[in-house]
Structure formats: structure tokens, C-alpha cells
Amino acid sequence: MTEVEGHRIEPLSAATWPAFAAMVERNAGLFSGCWCIHFHCHPDPPERREIGNRALKERLVREGRAHAALVFDGDEAIAWAQFGPVDELPNIHHRKEWLRTVEALPDYRITCVYVDRRHRRSGMAEIAVRGALELIADQGGGRVESYPHDLPPDKKMSSSFIYNATRTMYERLGFQYDRPKGAGNCVMATTVA
Fold it and tell me: Shortest CA distance to 7 belongs to which of 109, 75, 84, 68?
């Protein structure tokens, strides 16, 4: 366990699965019922269709093949940032473009940040990413990439569609802009000791 600005951060695990599952269920399965399984699946495994996103995510968590920082308010998980090595999270949006432009694989990538709708616009996304960076440091650190939305200053977008926060948030956290990735996204990177 670690703490970021008074919020308890716990890794996603068999022990924290019930709190994670409760948050996902409160929020309609996250983005249209994906349970944040999309980034684990390239190619799409047959069991995803057979057992569904929830069961597959739970299996990956119990097998130690799904990592995230969960932000807690008391006993309730209220936000999360999914992270892992590239082989654990091989599927990203604009993957083909990323593959064409990558010079070196990162040690970790942050693929999804989600905040319970009751806690949005309160800094929880930033706390979740800071929690993920702490957990990455505990696992040995290295180069970390993330793929946030790169919105022009005058463009507004609903927070329910911003699955990996914004470039400006990652800049506040010390990430450096690396390159564009698809329309409206970019690659940001930092090194964690």
C-alpha cells in the first residue's frame, strides 16, 4: 500500500478485486462494458467471447497478469490507472502507427485511467497515475509510456470519453511529449527510478 495526497493506493489483486468489481459495476462496466480488457487482447482471444470481459479480467487479475493502481476512499475504489509491460498490454489504439514509429519498447505502459463518475473533475485521474508510477517503481521502474488525448486548448471533450486523460495532465506529472499517435492522441514518456 502507498498513499498519494491522503488517498490510499492499492495494487489490483485478488484481494482488491471485489472493490474494483464494485466500482466497475457502479459505472456500467467502464467504457460500454469493456472491464478494461481491450488492451490485454491482441489478437482477440476466443475465451473473451466465451466467458465475457468480466470473467476474463478476473482470471487475469488472479493469475497476476493484470496490473493497476486503485485509488480508495475508505473501502471504496473510486479511480484506477491500468499499467503493465507491453506483452501484458499489447493492444493500444492506433497500434499500427505506434509500431511504425517506435524506436525502443517501453518497460511499462499506462493504457487506461478511469474515475468513478461521482469523483470526476477532482484530480483523481492524476492521483491514479501517480499511484501507478509508485507501483511501477516498486517493481523496478524503467521507461513508462502513456497515450493520452492531445486536445487543442479550445477543444472540450466529455470526461467520460477520455480513457487515458490528457497531455496536459501527463505534462504536470513530468512526462515528456514523444510523438503524435493517431488523430488527437500522442505518446508521452517518463523514466521511473
Answer: 75
Percent of the chain predicted with pLDDT > 70: 94
- pLDDT, tens digit, for every residue of 122-161? 999 999 999 999 999 999 999 999 999 997 766 665 555 5
| Cell numbers for 187 | 505518446
User: Is residue 63 packed enough to be buried (19+ CB in 10 Å), middle (13-18) or exposed (0-12)?
Assistant: exposed
Q: Any idea which residue has 511504425 for its cell?
A: 100
Do 72 and 80 form a contact (C-beta atoms < 8 A)?
A: no
Q: CB of 124 within 8 A of CB of 115?
A: yes
pTM above 0.85, yes or no: yes
